Structures are given as structure tokens and as C-alpha cells.
Amino acid sequence: MYKEKRKENKNQVLERLKMSLSKTDTDLDQEKYLREATRHFYGIEKPLKYGPSVETLNDLIQALYAEFSTNYVNIEMVNHLMLSYKSNPKEWQKFAKFDRYKYTRNLVDTGNGKFNLMILCWGEGHGSTIHDHSDSHCFMKMLKGELREIRYAMPTTTTTGTAAEGNTSNTTSMESDLERQESLDEIGQRTMSLNDVAYINDNLGLHRVENTSHSDTAVSLHLYCPPFDSCSVFEKNSGQRVKCTMTFWSKHGQKVTYDK
């Protein structure tokens, strides 16, 4: 019964997405299919009634591998899996690496190149820049503490300027071309608590995430699909946009050293 219900629901999702594609694109690769899905998917707030339960972090990883084993990924099921998993510090502490001065990105699993699962660690007062997600899906689940997410409307490019040096967390380089827009419009914010899940893609806008506490740290689990290693960051008041390369503080629990 479970398999039948799951198959029916998955087929409904696939049909909605396939209808938006041209007839010549019926044999899409997975990456193209996922990027197309960002135009139609807005996230789900509660686990699916027909979805499986996920009891451990390893169960979550294995279930994700199963979902990404075909070209037509059920993105609702991916969302369900992130919602279903309940934080257990004993399972993720080995990946949680903090830095005194900035939040850290710690790779948990590369998903055979089809998704990235990582843990971000936020010290007291740490926050991200305003950024996009390179036309990918972004799921963020709270494992510890609280984070505030502030969302902004995706800006429209007006003129082109010259890049200036900036301080962007977890970046190693910036491209020389800088796009300039009007100031960014805030469209909403929320506070995320233990086991909450937020979803965003570029169709929904930009966001900034911050730990507003000055006494407690926070830890979040992130899933990006397709995976990406660069994104655009934005300055709120001027709307300046610059491309940056993203790095990991650690991979699979081990500190990463980059050549300078």
C-alpha cells in the first residue's frame, strides 16, 4: 500500500513538471530536471503522509541516495526526508567544526556528485552574507539552537560596475565583474528552531542567515541539489552583486587546508 501511494504521488509531481518542458526535452538529465523544478517547487511544511520515517543521519543519507538514483528526482520526497529526520547530536557532532571568527561549512556527503549534504556551524553572532543559490534547491534544517532567516526579492540588474574588495565568509576568490542594482527589498523573515526546515531557491529570492544569540551557538544541516561551488552575494543597501567561490572548513570531519 505504501509503495502504491508513493508511486501515485510521485507520478503526479513528475507530470506537473514534465508539462512545463518542451517535447524535445523528455530525456532530460538529472541536473537539468532539478533546475527546471525550481520554477515550480515552493517547499512543503509538514512530512508527507505516505513518506518513510528517517531515524538516523545514516538513514537520511541512504534515503537521499535512493531518491537521487534516477533522473526524475521527487523533490517533495527529498523535502520530506529532511523534515522527517530528528536531530541527534551523537550522530552529527563529529562533523560540527566551529571557527572563532565566522560560520563554517562542513561537508558530510557529496551524494556521488548529485547533491551536497553539509553541516554549518554558527558561533555567537555569526551570520552569512545575502546570497543566491546558483539555480539550485536549498534545504536548511536546524540541528541545534536558533537561526534567523531574512529573505529578499531577487533584484533586477540595471548597470554594470567594477568589483571592489569585500569580506565574504567562506569565499576564496571574487570575479572582477560586478553587477549593480537598486537596494534589496526585504520580503520576510522567520526564526528557525530545533528540527525546523526552510526551503529556498532563486525563484523564491535571496536570503541571509544569522545566529542572533550572543550566548548560544547554532548548528544547521543543509542539502543543495544540484551541488554548486560558487554563488552570488549581495550588498543590501547598494544592491552590489559579486560572484564568489565557496569553500569547506572541513570534509567528512577532517579540517581542509587550502593552498594560498
Folded structure, characterized:
It is a single chain. This protein is an alpha+beta fold and 260 residues long. Helices cover 20% and strands 31% of the residues. The chain has five helices and 16 strands. The protein has helices spanning 2-19, 30-37, 57-67, 75-84, 89-92; strands at 104-109, 116-122, 130-131, 137-144, 147-152, 159-162, 171-174, 177-180, 186-192, 197-200, 206-210, 218-225, 230-234, 241-246, 250-251, 254-255. The longest helix is centred in the first third of the chain and has 18 residues, at 2-19. The model is unreliable at 1-8, 19-27 and 158-177 (pLDDT under 50). InterPro entries: CDO_1, RmlC-like_jellyroll, RmlC_Cupin_sf. Its EC number is 1.13.11.20. Keywords: Dioxygenase, Iron, Metal-binding, Oxidoreductase, Thioether bond.
Order of strands side by side in the largest beta sheet? Answer: 10-4-12-2-1-15-16
Give the averaged pLDDT, no decimals.
85
Strand content: 25-35%
Spatial gap, N to C terminus: 56 Å
H/E element sequence? HHHHHEEEEEEEEEEEEEEEE
Number of H- or I-type helical stretches: 5
Structural class: alpha+beta
Report the uncertain regions: 1-8, 19-27, 158-177
Task: Tell me roughly what share of residues is in helical segments.
Answer: 10-25%
Described by strand count, sense and barrel closure, the largest sheet is: 7 strands, mixed
Total strands: the figure is 16
Shape: globular
Instruction: Report the oligomer.
Output: single chain
**Nearest-angstrom radius of gyration?**
18 Å
